[in-house]
Specification:
One of its GO terms (biological process) is response to other organism. GO terms for molecular function: protein serine/threonine kinase activity. Keywords: Receptor, Signal. By secondary structure, this protein is mostly beta strands. It folds into 2 domains: 100 residues, Bulb-type lectin domain (Agglutinin, subunit A, Orthogonal Prism); 112 residues, Agglutinin, subunit A. Helix content is 8%, strand content 39%. It has 2 helices and 25 strands. A hairpin with a 2-residue loop joins strand 20 and strand 21. It is elongated. The structure holds 2-acetamido-2-deoxy-beta-D-glucopyranose (3 copies).
Amino acid sequence: MAIQIPFALLTLSTIFLLLPPYTTADYVLYNGEVLMAGQNLTNGYYRLTMQPNCDLVLYDNYDTPIWQTNTAGGGQNCYVTLKPNGEMVVRRDVHYTLWSSASKSKKGKYALVLNSNGRLGIYGQRRWSSNNQKDAKVLSRSEVKTEYVLFSGQRLSPPRKLKYRNYSLGFSKCNLVIRDERSEKALWQTNTDGNDCYLQLENDGELSVKRSGERVWSSNKRGESGEYIAVLRFDGRLHVYGPQVWSNESREDSELLTASPVVGVDSASSL
Ligand SMILES: *[C@@H]1O[C@H](CO)[C@@H](O)[C@H](O)[C@H]1NC(C)=O
Ligand SMILES: *[C@@H]1O[C@H](CO)[C@@H](O)[C@H](O)[C@H]1NC(C)=O
Ligand SMILES: *[C@@H]1O[C@H](CO)[C@@H](O)[C@H](O)[C@H]1NC(C)=O
């Protein structure tokens, strides 16, 4: 037993480094990041809170719980994280799983999104990324109120922009540009010209710039059909994730909710 405790501490501190405790996160959680007790994802009126009593609860604008993992009383020092297989888990003591979204998928990069209608969705794996240099600065993930996620089926037409902190994604005429708003420097662009362009995310994950309905630029990455997202990330890159592998309204999940919470240990290094 004595050998396992330092390992646990080491693992937990590794997790802490990825998302510093006691910050409020915004509305996207990437795999590797954690929400600790007291931390929230917030989007407009909706708030997903990792409560100190171990329950993960989604609240609406009247502070009424509309969804929860029913893990209250599960212990202390609980957290929620998104694993590299797209599974969202509520855990305590580093590895002990109290609740799982049961959305095990291929290993990759995933994103959990709380949308402005209060729906939770897990998207992945990552299909495409813009190739501009990543901003490597330590992120302080305080609440973000701007729009920075494009869902499949949606278009981004000028003058609308996606904005995350100091980054923006929008058109300058027909040229789609990721800009650093501080220096006004273009970090990445499609170099497309003309007028009347828009960006569209298809339901196979393809991102394209269209001019009068005709493709003038494409990410050329397609997957199976489903719900995808394009996110302007904290590091200044645009990523496409999908299709959606889980939402709080999926059938698997409602089965989990009516049954007692899933209990299990899913790591070789179990405590
Ligand atoms: C999470 O939201 C609650 C309710 O609005 C708030 O009291 C709390 O301070 C938030 N947590 C953080 C870390 O900001
Ligand atoms: C999922 O969230 C939506 C939006 O808040 C809510 O209306 C719905 O009831 C939730 N689904 C489940 C299964 O709880
Ligand atoms: C933009 O960057 C500056 C300098 O790095 C920082 O002080 C400021 O808070 C950032 N703005 C936003 C909205 O994050």
